[in-house]
Write a structure and sequence with these properties.
Immunoglobulin-like, 2 domains, 2 helices, five-stranded mixed β-sheet, single chain, five-stranded antiparallel β-sheet, mainly beta
């Protein structure tokens, strides 16, 4: 009998040590969900291949020690409330997220992954902005004198094409703003 208790406690202890925990921060932009842990303690081996939100399946597309990104599977429905949602990681682990926004330091980390290409840009071509951005993101283009050239509102796109046919040869500043946080990137337009 003692042997059975011992085996039970060993099995339970190993299961407890291997158990997945809820990622501390999540951002749901509809077709993508971002989990961020800027302390570098996200374990990709613990993250499942798929998660479920309100019955819709999201598949993992990227994972590292800081973040995991899941994309809504074809035919799935976006969550009805992007700010308050429950994520089913499988195995009985359900994590609740309220006010689905990221702390500024986590948003800054995700921004570092933002890709703006091509750069330099040939005159008349478009810029591609690659990254799922939160609702209400604004992309503004300024010349070197600080004059606003273009402003576009985007929401939750993984890839956004920004028209630049009105830009002359030179250096421009692109400002990406959301929820009181702004980031700048420079681009060059050449002949």
């Amino acid at each position: 009998m003692k042997k059975n208790y011992f085996l039970f406690f060993v099995a339970f202890g190993i299961n407890f040590l291997m158990a997945q925990s809820c990622p501390p921060n999540a951002l749901n932009v509809g077709d993508q969900v971002f989990f961020v842990d800027s302390s570098n303690s996200l374990n990709c081996f613990e993250m499942p291949n798929t998660i479920t939100i309100e019955g819709s399946t999201y598949s993992g597309i990227q994972c590292d020690t800081n973040s995991a990104i899941y994309e809504l599977d074809m035919g799935g429905t976006e969550a009805s409330d992007l700010d308050v949602f429950d994520v089913d990681f499988g195995g009985g682990l359900i994590c609740s997220y309220n006010n689905g926004t990221l702390p500024i330091k986590d948003f800054e980390f995700l921004y570092k992954k933002l890709k703006l290409y091509p750069n330099p840009l040939n005159k008349g071509n478009s810029i591609n902005l690659s990254f799922g951005l939160p609702e209400g993101t604004e992309v503004s283009i300024y010349n070197v004198m600080g004059k606003l050239i273009s402003r576009q509102h985007i929401s939750g796109h993984n890839l956004k094409e920004i028209k630049t046919s009105n830009l002359l040869e030179g250096i421009y500043l692109i400002r990406i703003s959301t929820e009181g946080v702004s980031f700048n990137r420079r681009i060059a337009v050449v002949q």
